[in-house]
Write a structure and sequence with these properties.
about 220 residues; four-stranded antiparallel sheet; 9 helices; 11 strands; elongated; binds calcium ion
Length: about 220
């Protein structure tokens, strides 16, 4: 993936262990991170630069997260996930009311936060950007896929299915969800069609390149990691 396509995330958190942990996890997932430990600093940084997403702690020095969000929303719609302490129900409600896109309660599971970040940055996929997983690359705009530079010839439905799985990398997606998202809710048929198309994809990717790109999670669905 080109550096230019990396998504920029602003971490606003005054506890250094948490912000450091988030930074390491996010950079591992190929995001670029900036960190602010103070509310006023965070607000000016968020206004000055265009981030793909902001992770915003509520309890902050100088200006709390709710106030940072309120002022940010007067100007910008950058996706925001607020971090609240356990049982701060008021903060969650207020945060959502004034335009937070999501919230996480501390302590949180990093996998869940990463899944929510993917969800809320999905729409900010820039034109021409590639989705990459190992050697597999999928480009939504060009509707093209390749493995290590070797093109994969896919039908429309096969491509749609692969694209959806790539857009939700590391998330196990159920057959029902795939049927809804790729075939549409008005599709009359059984979820077996999903298995059939997964087989088609495997015959064109896994079998050809001798890899195991699409993983079956017994009783749960499919995932590309
Ligand atoms: Ca804090």
């Amino acid at each position: 993936m080109n550096t230019i396509d990396k998504k920029n995330i602003l971490i606003v958190e005054d506890e250094p262990q948490i912000s450091r942990f988030l930074q390491l996890e996010l950079e591992h997932e190929n995001y670029t991170c900036s960190i602010c430990a103070d509310g006023r600093d965070a607000l000016s940084t968020a206004l000055e630069h265009d981030f793909d997403l902001i992770i915003l702690d509520v309890m902050l020095p100088s200006l709390n997260g709710i106030e940072v969000l309120r002022r940010l929303r007067q100007v910008k719609q950058t996706p925001v996930i607020i971090l609240t302490a356990r049982d701060q129900v008021v903060d969650k409600v207020t945060g959502l009311d004034i335009g937070a896109n999501d919230y996480m309660t501390k302590p949180f599971a990093i996998e869940e936060l990463l899944a929510r970040i993917r969800l809320h940055t999905k729409n900010s996929v820039r034109a021409g950007s590639d989705l990459v997983c190992g050697l597999l690359t999928v480009n939504a705009d060009a509707r093209a896929a390749n493995y290590g530079g070797r093109p994969i010839d896919l039908t429309k439905k096969e491509f749609d299915l692969l694209l959806y799985l790539m857009q939700h990398r590391n998330v196990v997606v159920s057959r029902e969800k795939l049927l809804d998202e790729v075939w549409g809710f008005d599709f009359y048929g059984s979820t077996n069609v999903v298995d059939v198309y997964i087989r088609y994809l495997r015959s064109k990717i896994d079998n050809v390149f001798k890899v195991d790109v699409i993983e079956t999670v017994r009783g749960a669905g499919y995932v590309i990691r």
